[in-house]
């Protein structure tokens, strides 16, 4: 338990940097939220087809863990966002995640350029299944593979 506490505790320098962060109040539908600014900034959409989205993402310093790797939570966030973006229908509420399973196969370092590909595995009613692959664009090394299940309302047929 003590090891877990130590690994989660911020060092004085880290604590000081966090306390100095300032963000203006969020204006919905006008500004990016802190989450969007912090976690999603830098994702570049390269190709979109029905059931397929391909993006590029250069690993920024803000998402690096203490070991110098892209944080596993950041990888999970990419799987969540890319799976959700693939099945989102404009004008309908966002789908909710039902289940997500991620296999972490390797690590990514600062400034590595990643290719993130999301494909639709299938859709039944409001339920959709996606596969998200994260790989190092330069080496082709597989960083993570995620399966993401989502549920959303369909437009009324009336």
From TrEMBL:
User: Per the record, which residues fall in region Disordered?
Assistant: 1-23
Q: Chief subcellular site?
A: cytoplasm
Q: Where is the Thioesterase domain?
A: 67-120
Query: Which is a Pfam family this sequence falls into?
Result: 4HBT
Which keywords belong to this entry?
Answer: Acetylation, Cytoplasm, Cytoskeleton, Hydrolase, Lipid metabolism, Mitochondrion, Nucleus
Gene Ontology biological process terms in this record: lipid metabolic process
Enumerate the subcellular locations listed in this protein's record, separating them with semicolons: Cytoplasm, Cytoskeleton, Spindle; Cytoplasm, Cytosol; Mitochondrion; Nucleus
Q: Which GO terms fall under molecular function for this chain's record?
A: fatty acyl-CoA hydrolase activity
- Any single Gene Ontology cellular-component annotation: cytosol
| Catalyzed reactions per annotation | a fatty acyl-CoA + H2O = a fatty acid + CoA + H(+)
Record note on quaternary structure? Homotetramer. Interacts with PCTP.
Q: Which family does it belong to?
A: Belongs to the thioesterase PaaI family.
Q: What's this chain's function?
A: Catalyzes the hydrolysis of acyl-CoAs into free fatty acids and coenzyme A (CoASH), regulating their respective intracellular levels. Has acyl-CoA thioesterase activity towards medium (C12) and long-chain (C18) fatty acyl-CoA substrates. Can also hydrolyze 3-hydroxyphenylacetyl-CoA and 3,4-dihydroxyphenylacetyl-CoA (in vitro). May play a role in controlling adaptive thermogenesis.
- The molecule here is called Acyl-coenzyme A thioesterase 13
Q: Which organism is it from?
A: Coffea canephora (Robusta coffee)
């Amino acid at each position: 338990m003590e090891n877990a506490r130590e690994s989660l505790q911020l060092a004085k320098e880290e604590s000081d940097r966090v306390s100095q962060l300032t963000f203006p109040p969020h204006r919905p539908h006008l500004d990016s939220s802190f989450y969007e600014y912090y976690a999603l900034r830098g994702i570049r959409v390269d190709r979109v087809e029905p059931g397929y989205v391909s993006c590029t993402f250069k690993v920024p310093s803000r998402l690096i863990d203490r070991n110098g790797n892209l944080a596993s939570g950041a990888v999970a966030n990419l799987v969540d966002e890319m799976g959700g973006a693939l099945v989102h229908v404009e004008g309908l509420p966002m789908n909710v995640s039902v289940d997500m399973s991620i296999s972490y196969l390797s690590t990514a370092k600062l400034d590595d350029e990643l290719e993130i590909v999301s494909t639709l595995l299938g859709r039944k009613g409001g339920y959709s299944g996606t596969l998200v692959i994260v790989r190092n664009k330069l080496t082709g090394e597989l960083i993570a593979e995620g399966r993401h299940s989502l549920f959303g309302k369909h437009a009324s047929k009336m």
